[in-house]
Specification:
By secondary structure, the chain is α+β, with helices and mostly antiparallel strands. The chain has eleven helices and eight strands. It has helices at 3-23, 30-48, 59-79, 81-84, 95-120, 125-141, 152-180, 183-194, 207-229, 235-263, 362-374; strands at residues 86-88, 201-203, 268-272, 287-292, 303-308, 311-323, 326-332, 349-357.
């Protein structure tokens, strides 16, 4: 192994190890720590890593296209507020937020793209893989780190709302940087990441649905840019790419459908059964898909989803009474010997069960039990 490769491997490993370590250390603001590390390592990479030529075709076109697409992305997100509603932005820019949030985020984006570009130019598969992991870690650290996680819900937020979108986004960023240089990525990421700090009102789309958009959009963007600029010399390659595009679209549709169910903001929602109170009809670990309650007729014996102490419960309606113009529903778990305490009314009902998917929710329950046992 020559000296250049040793230096390349050493620097890439040190950067990865430093970012990975900071992910598990409670260091206050993870984005400030990530920004400081990258500001330290970026000049080192530029000075010590040997410069190599990289394939950068259609740079200006893709740079302009990235700017246009990022603006369209922001506009479309804001338009969704017509459906989801708007809320006053608590993160609107001020001097403190500029220093503690906006500048660190901009530094992370610019530095990570410079490091990505230099590493990819080496045309070394191992270093390319490490640079991908480095960039995924920086995206996670832009939001939070594992050391700050104190509950299952926050851990699932980190994984589902941050880690998964970072994985798909960096697939596109790697592709774009390798073929068109760093500037299209920098432009796209700065606009789509920082716009929220300059909007006084933002869409009230749920975090789950927004993370779904962040997962799907880079994949669709990759398919679009690839179809627009990649040369297809062979018909077989064309067919293969068309098949891949169909696969991407189908995968995006599945992800979107799951996110729509989990977000519970549409006609149908989903919930994982965490207890054995309905064993027989519905077992622990099953996922229930339910239809949102909108004054449908409810009959005795029907299984419903309702709120009790801010938790969603799935039990069967055992008895219905109408007293003083108010309809009261008495519920019971099939495996329970007695009725649930008290009663619920129409305002407590979330939805009516539609179907179940057996055992698919067990991974979530195992993870919950694992985290609870470790605390």
């Amino acid at each position: 192994m020559n000296k250049d490769k040793k230096v390349l491997y050493l620097i890439s490993f040190i950067i990865f190890a430093a970012l990975l370590s900071s992910l598990f250390v409670n260091v206050g603001s993870s984005k400030i720590v990530a920004a400081c590390l990258l500001l330290l390592f970026t000049p080192i990479v530029c000075l010590l890593v040997r410069k190599r030529g990289s394939l950068s075709i259609n740079k200006r076109e893709v740079l302009l296209l990235s700017a246009i697409i990022s603006v369209i992305y922001v506009v479309l997100l804001q338009i969704t507020g017509i459906f989801f509603g708007f809320y006053k932005n608590p993160y609107f820019v001020n001097t403190e937020r500029l220093v503690q949030t906006i500048l660190p985020l901009a530094s992370i984006i610019i530095c990570s793209e410079i490091i990505r570009f230099v590493f990819l130019a080496q045309k070394n598969k191992a270093v390319s893989g490490i640079s991908y992991l480095i960039c995924v870690l920086t995206e996670v650290l832009m939001v939070s780190n594992v050391a700050e996680i104190t509950s299952l819900n926050r851990f699932m937020d980190l994984v589902g709302l941050t880690f998964f979108p970072a994985i798909t986004a960096n697939i596109y960023y790697h592709y774009s940087s390798k073929r068109f240089g760093m500037f299209p990525n920098i432009t796209f990421r700065l606009i789509t990441t920082l716009y929220v700090y300059f909007m006084k009102s933002v869409t009230a789309m749920s975090d789950t649905l927004l993370s779904c958009v962040k997962m799907i959009f880079p994949i669709l963007l990759l398919a679009f840019i690839s179809a627009l600029y990649e040369k297809r010399k062979k018909n077989a390659l064309q067919r293969g790419r068309k098949a891949s595009l169909v696969g991407v679209i189908l995968a995006a549709a599945v992800i979107a459908s799951v996110a729509m169910l989990i977000s519970c903001q549409f006609r149908f929602g989903a919930i994982v059964i965490a207890t054995e109170s309905m064993t027989g009809e519905i077992n622990k670990g099953d996922m229930i898909i339910y239809e949102r309650y909108d004054d449908q007729v409810i009959k005795e014996g029907q299984i419903i989803v309702f709120l009790q102490n801010q938790s969603k419960i799935v039990h069967r309606v055992a008895k219905i009474e109408s007293i003083g113009g108010e309809t009261r529903y008495y519920t019971k778990g099939d495996a329970n010997e007695s009725l649930d305490s008290g009663y619920i009314t129409d305002k407590d009902i979330v939805g009516l069960t539609d179907m179940k998917v057996a055992y698919i929710g067990y991974p979530t329950l195992w993870l919950r039990e694992l985290l609870e046992s470790s605390n």
